[in-house]
Specification:
The protein is mainly α and about 220 residues long. Helices cover about 70% and strands about 0% of the residues. The site of nickel (II) ion has 5 residues, from helix 2.
Protein backbone atom coordinates (compact mmCIF):
# COMPACT_ATOMS: atom_id res chain seq x y z
CA UNK A 1 0.00 0.00 0.00
CA UNK A 2 1.48 3.38 -0.87
CA UNK A 3 1.76 6.20 1.66
CA UNK A 4 -0.95 8.32 0.11
CA UNK A 5 -3.44 5.50 0.40
CA UNK A 6 -2.42 4.77 4.00
CA UNK A 7 -2.97 8.43 4.89
CA UNK A 8 -6.36 8.37 3.19
CA UNK A 9 -7.37 5.22 5.08
CA UNK A 10 -6.18 6.73 8.35
CA UNK A 11 -8.22 9.87 7.67
CA UNK A 12 -11.31 7.73 7.06
CA UNK A 13 -10.68 5.86 10.30
CA UNK A 14 -10.24 9.07 12.31
CA UNK A 15 -13.32 10.66 10.77
CA UNK A 16 -15.53 7.66 11.47
CA UNK A 17 -14.40 7.26 15.05
CA UNK A 18 -14.67 10.95 15.83
CA UNK A 19 -17.99 11.50 14.06
CA UNK A 20 -19.65 8.60 15.86
CA UNK A 21 -18.68 10.08 19.17
CA UNK A 22 -21.53 11.79 21.01
CA UNK A 23 -19.24 14.03 23.07
CA UNK A 24 -18.51 15.84 19.80
CA UNK A 25 -14.75 16.01 19.99
CA UNK A 26 -14.81 16.91 16.45
CA UNK A 27 -13.26 15.45 13.37
CA UNK A 28 -12.94 18.91 11.80
CA UNK A 29 -10.40 19.88 14.44
CA UNK A 30 -8.32 16.84 13.46
CA UNK A 31 -8.81 17.75 9.79
CA UNK A 32 -7.57 21.32 10.34
CA UNK A 33 -4.59 20.14 12.38
CA UNK A 34 -3.75 17.73 9.55
CA UNK A 35 -3.83 20.51 6.94
CA UNK A 36 -1.86 22.96 9.06
CA UNK A 37 0.71 20.30 9.99
CA UNK A 38 1.27 19.53 6.29
CA UNK A 39 1.72 23.23 5.57
CA UNK A 40 4.33 23.56 8.32
CA UNK A 41 6.05 20.26 7.47
CA UNK A 42 6.52 21.29 3.84
CA UNK A 43 8.22 24.51 4.91
CA UNK A 44 10.30 22.99 7.68
CA UNK A 45 11.28 19.88 5.77
CA UNK A 46 9.99 16.99 7.88
CA UNK A 47 8.73 13.46 7.32
CA UNK A 48 5.30 14.17 5.85
CA UNK A 49 4.10 10.60 6.34
CA UNK A 50 4.70 10.57 10.10
CA UNK A 51 3.36 14.11 10.49
CA UNK A 52 0.12 13.29 8.69
CA UNK A 53 -0.59 10.07 10.58
CA UNK A 54 0.13 11.66 13.95
CA UNK A 55 -1.93 14.78 13.18
CA UNK A 56 -4.94 12.72 12.10
CA UNK A 57 -4.82 10.49 15.16
CA UNK A 58 -3.62 12.98 17.79
CA UNK A 59 -6.92 13.57 19.59
CA UNK A 60 -8.35 10.07 19.64
CA UNK A 61 -7.52 9.83 23.35
CA UNK A 62 -9.51 12.94 24.20
CA UNK A 63 -12.81 11.98 22.74
CA UNK A 64 -13.01 8.33 23.63
CA UNK A 65 -11.80 8.31 27.19
CA UNK A 66 -12.48 10.94 29.76
CA UNK A 67 -9.00 10.88 31.17
CA UNK A 68 -7.36 10.25 27.81
CA UNK A 69 -5.86 6.83 28.51
CA UNK A 70 -2.90 6.83 26.16
CA UNK A 71 -2.05 3.12 26.48
CA UNK A 72 -5.47 2.00 25.21
CA UNK A 73 -5.28 4.49 22.38
CA UNK A 74 -1.84 3.27 21.47
CA UNK A 75 -3.20 -0.26 21.15
CA UNK A 76 -5.88 0.93 18.73
CA UNK A 77 -3.42 2.98 16.72
CA UNK A 78 -0.99 0.05 16.51
CA UNK A 79 -3.79 -2.24 15.34
CA UNK A 80 -4.82 0.20 12.63
CA UNK A 81 -1.31 0.91 11.37
CA UNK A 82 -0.37 -2.76 11.43
CA UNK A 83 -3.38 -3.52 9.29
CA UNK A 84 -2.21 -0.83 6.87
CA UNK A 85 1.27 -2.43 6.81
CA UNK A 86 3.03 0.62 8.24
CA UNK A 87 6.61 -0.06 9.32
CA UNK A 88 7.23 -0.52 13.04
CA UNK A 89 9.57 2.46 13.43
CA UNK A 90 6.97 4.76 11.85
CA UNK A 91 4.21 3.41 14.11
CA UNK A 92 6.37 3.90 17.22
CA UNK A 93 7.15 7.45 16.22
CA UNK A 94 3.45 8.21 15.61
CA UNK A 95 2.50 6.71 18.99
CA UNK A 96 5.18 8.73 20.75
CA UNK A 97 3.83 11.96 19.24
CA UNK A 98 0.21 11.16 20.10
CA UNK A 99 1.22 10.32 23.67
CA UNK A 100 2.98 13.65 24.10
CA UNK A 101 0.29 15.81 22.47
CA UNK A 102 -2.41 14.27 24.67
CA UNK A 103 -0.42 14.52 27.85
CA UNK A 104 -1.93 16.86 30.42
CA UNK A 105 0.30 16.37 33.43
CA UNK A 106 0.13 18.83 36.28
CA UNK A 107 2.72 21.49 35.72
CA UNK A 108 4.70 19.18 33.44
CA UNK A 109 5.38 20.55 30.01
CA UNK A 110 5.31 17.85 27.35
CA UNK A 111 8.48 18.11 25.31
CA UNK A 112 8.54 16.85 21.79
CA UNK A 113 11.68 14.94 20.89
CA UNK A 114 11.42 15.11 17.10
CA UNK A 115 10.74 17.75 14.50
CA UNK A 116 7.64 15.83 13.38
CA UNK A 117 6.26 15.91 16.93
CA UNK A 118 6.99 19.62 17.25
CA UNK A 119 5.10 20.28 14.03
CA UNK A 120 1.99 18.37 15.13
CA UNK A 121 2.05 20.15 18.48
CA UNK A 122 2.36 23.54 16.75
CA UNK A 123 -0.53 22.71 14.40
CA UNK A 124 -2.70 21.62 17.35
CA UNK A 125 -1.93 24.80 19.27
CA UNK A 126 -2.52 26.98 16.20
CA UNK A 127 -6.07 25.62 16.02
CA UNK A 128 -6.71 27.06 19.49
CA UNK A 129 -5.86 30.63 18.43
CA UNK A 130 -6.99 33.08 15.73
CA UNK A 131 -10.54 33.21 14.39
CA UNK A 132 -11.05 29.48 14.75
CA UNK A 133 -9.56 29.52 18.22
CA UNK A 134 -12.03 32.25 19.22
CA UNK A 135 -14.94 30.22 17.83
CA UNK A 136 -13.75 27.08 19.61
CA UNK A 137 -13.30 28.88 22.92
CA UNK A 138 -16.85 30.23 22.95
CA UNK A 139 -18.27 26.91 21.76
CA UNK A 140 -16.45 25.18 24.62
CA UNK A 141 -17.53 27.84 27.12
CA UNK A 142 -21.16 27.49 26.04
CA UNK A 143 -20.96 23.72 26.32
CA UNK A 144 -19.60 24.06 29.87
CA UNK A 145 -22.16 26.72 30.79
CA UNK A 146 -19.55 29.43 31.31
CA UNK A 147 -20.26 33.14 31.09
CA UNK A 148 -18.82 35.02 28.09
CA UNK A 149 -17.31 37.56 30.42
CA UNK A 150 -17.76 38.82 33.94
CA UNK A 151 -15.79 41.88 35.06
CA UNK A 152 -15.89 40.60 38.64
CA UNK A 153 -13.93 37.45 37.83
CA UNK A 154 -10.27 38.14 37.13
CA UNK A 155 -8.13 35.77 35.07
CA UNK A 156 -6.11 33.40 37.23
CA UNK A 157 -2.58 32.05 37.09
CA UNK A 158 -2.93 28.35 37.76
CA UNK A 159 -0.01 26.42 39.17
CA UNK A 160 -1.37 22.95 38.52
CA UNK A 161 -3.49 21.34 35.87
CA UNK A 162 -6.14 20.44 38.51
CA UNK A 163 -6.36 24.04 39.63
CA UNK A 164 -6.67 25.20 36.02
CA UNK A 165 -9.38 22.63 35.21
CA UNK A 166 -11.52 23.41 38.25
CA UNK A 167 -11.18 27.18 38.26
CA UNK A 168 -14.35 29.21 38.03
CA UNK A 169 -13.71 31.38 35.04
CA UNK A 170 -15.17 33.01 31.94
CA UNK A 171 -14.36 32.39 28.31
CA UNK A 172 -12.76 35.82 27.91
CA UNK A 173 -10.47 34.95 30.83
CA UNK A 174 -9.43 31.79 28.99
CA UNK A 175 -7.71 34.06 26.47
CA UNK A 176 -5.48 35.46 29.22
CA UNK A 177 -5.01 32.13 30.98
CA UNK A 178 -4.05 30.16 27.90
CA UNK A 179 -4.74 31.37 24.37
CA UNK A 180 -2.56 34.50 24.41
CA UNK A 181 0.32 32.44 25.82
CA UNK A 182 0.43 29.93 22.97
CA UNK A 183 2.31 32.18 20.54
CA UNK A 184 5.45 31.95 22.66
CA UNK A 185 5.20 28.17 22.94
CA UNK A 186 5.60 27.51 19.22
CA UNK A 187 8.38 25.04 18.37
CA UNK A 188 8.99 25.85 14.72
CA UNK A 189 9.72 29.09 12.84
CA UNK A 190 6.78 28.49 10.50
CA UNK A 191 4.51 27.84 13.48
CA UNK A 192 5.70 31.10 15.04
CA UNK A 193 4.94 33.06 11.87
CA UNK A 194 1.40 31.72 11.61
CA UNK A 195 0.89 32.22 15.36
CA UNK A 196 1.93 35.90 15.16
CA UNK A 197 -0.89 36.65 12.71
CA UNK A 198 -3.50 34.71 14.64
CA UNK A 199 -2.34 36.28 17.89
CA UNK A 200 -2.80 39.78 16.49
CA UNK A 201 -6.29 38.84 15.35
CA UNK A 202 -7.18 37.76 18.91
CA UNK A 203 -5.75 40.97 20.36
CA UNK A 204 -7.85 43.02 17.95
CA UNK A 205 -10.89 40.97 18.84
CA UNK A 206 -10.34 41.54 22.57
CA UNK A 207 -9.78 45.26 22.06
CA UNK A 208 -13.04 45.55 20.14
CA UNK A 209 -14.82 43.36 22.70
CA UNK A 210 -13.86 45.63 25.60
CA UNK A 211 -14.56 48.75 23.61
CA UNK A 212 -18.09 47.52 23.00
CA UNK A 213 -18.41 46.33 26.61
CA UNK A 214 -17.37 49.69 27.99
CA UNK A 215 -19.34 51.54 25.33
CA UNK A 216 -16.47 53.92 24.67
CA UNK A 217 -17.24 54.44 20.99
CA UNK A 218 -20.85 55.15 21.76
CA UNK A 219 -19.86 57.72 24.39
CA UNK A 220 -17.42 59.44 22.03
CA UNK A 221 -20.19 60.00 19.53
CA UNK A 222 -22.38 61.80 22.08
P1 LIG B 1 -7.12 20.24 21.78
O1 LIG B 1 -8.25 19.35 21.41
O2 LIG B 1 -6.71 21.11 20.64
O3 LIG B 1 -5.97 19.53 22.40
P2 LIG B 1 -8.44 21.08 24.22
O4 LIG B 1 -9.12 19.76 24.24
O5 LIG B 1 -7.58 21.47 25.37
O6 LIG B 1 -7.61 21.29 22.86
O7 LIG B 1 -9.54 22.20 24.04
C1 LIG B 1 -10.41 22.21 22.95
C2 LIG B 1 -10.81 23.66 22.65
O8 LIG B 1 -11.55 24.18 23.73
C3 LIG B 1 -9.62 24.59 22.45
O9 LIG B 1 -9.87 25.47 21.38
C4 LIG B 1 -9.50 25.33 23.77
O10 LIG B 1 -9.00 26.63 23.66
C5 LIG B 1 -10.94 25.36 24.22
N1 LIG B 1 -10.97 25.41 25.67
C6 LIG B 1 -10.38 24.57 26.54
N2 LIG B 1 -10.59 24.95 27.81
C7 LIG B 1 -11.33 26.06 27.74
C8 LIG B 1 -11.89 26.97 28.70
N3 LIG B 1 -11.73 26.79 30.00
N4 LIG B 1 -12.62 28.01 28.23
C9 LIG B 1 -12.80 28.22 26.92
N5 LIG B 1 -12.30 27.42 25.97
C10 LIG B 1 -11.58 26.35 26.36
NI1 LIG C 1 -6.14 18.68 19.29
Amino acid sequence: MNQELIVRRTAEYARKRMEDEASGHDWWHAWRVWKTAVRIAKKEGADLFVVQLAALLHDIADWKFNDGDVSIVEKDVRKLLEKLCVEEHVTSHVCEIIGNVSFRGAGVKARMRTKEGMIVQDADRLDAIGAIGIARAFAYGGFKGKEIYNPNILPGKHKTFEEYKNAESTTINHFYEKLLLLKDLMNTETGKEIAEERHRFMENFLEEFFEEWEGRRYLQQQ
